[in-house]
Amino acid sequence: MNIPDKILPYTPVFIKLLKGPVEYVEKSAWERLLQYKTELTRFVQQLGLTLVLDEDDGYAYLRHTSSEEDEATVSWMQRRPLTYDESVLLVLLRDMMAEFEVGEVTNRELIKKRREIKEYGELFFKENASRVKFVKELDRLIDRAEENGFLDRIENNDIADEQKFRIKKIIKARVDGEILDQFKQQLSEHAAKRIQHRQS
C-alpha cells in the first residue's frame, strides 16, 4: 500500500472550504488560503469545483463548476435549501449590508443587535401582506440564518433582543445587487396593490 510522503500544505484549508466559507477573521486559514490560492485553485478544478475568492471583502468558498449536477457528478458539499422566508431574511440582511457600505464606514464589519434586525424587517416590508407573518417569525429566522452561516453571534446577552450579530459578507455572494433590486421592486408592487385594494 502506497502512503503519500506528505500532506499537501493547503489540505487543511480545503477541508474547511468543504464545510463552508472561509473568512479573513480566521487568520491562520485565511493566510494559508492566500498563500496557496493558485495551487488550491488547480487542485479543486480537478474535482469539478471552483474556488471563489473575494480578497477585498475577505471570504472564499467552493462551488460546483457544473451548473447542473448529473448522476455522474460528485456532490462534495452539503446543500442547504432555504425556505421563502429564510430567503427574504437573507435579502433583508443584504440590504442592510448595502446601506452600510455606501455610508461612512469606520468599521470593516457590520454589527447589529437582534432588535435592530427585527426593526429593519418591519421597515423593509412596510405595507406588504407578508409583513405580519414575517415579523412574527423573525426570531426563528435569525437563528436559522446563524445556523446557515450568514450571521455570527459575537455577544450573548440576557436580553435576547440585545444579542449582537456580525452580518457576514458572504451574503453578497448569495444575493447580488440585481437580485436585491428585483426583490425590492416586487415588494413595492405588492404594497401598491394592497393600498389600491384598501382604497377601492
What attributes characterize this protein structure?
200 residues, alpha+beta, Arc Repressor Mutant, subunit A, 2 domains, three-stranded antiparallel β-sheet, 51% helix, 14% strand, globular, DUF4194 domain-containing protein, JetB
Characterise this structure.
It holds the Pfam family DUF4194. InterPro entries: JetB (IPR025449). It comes from Filimonas lacunae. This is DUF4194 domain-containing protein. The chain has 200 residues and is α+β, with helices and mostly antiparallel strands. It has 2 domains: 1-79, Arc Repressor Mutant, subunit A (Orthogonal Bundle); 84-199, Orthogonal Bundle (Arc Repressor Mutant, subunit A). Helix content is 51%, strand content 14%. The chain has 8 helices and 6 strands. It has helices at 11-19, 27-35, 37-45, 84-102, 114-125, 131-147, 171-174, 177-199, and strands spanning 22-23, 49-54, 59-64, 110-113, 151-155, 164-167. It has a 3-stranded antiparallel β-sheet with strand order 1-3-2. A hairpin with an 8-residue loop joins strand 5 (151-155) and strand 6. Helix 4 crosses helix 5 (114-125), helix 4 (84-102) packs across helix 6 (131-147) and helix 5 crosses helix 6.
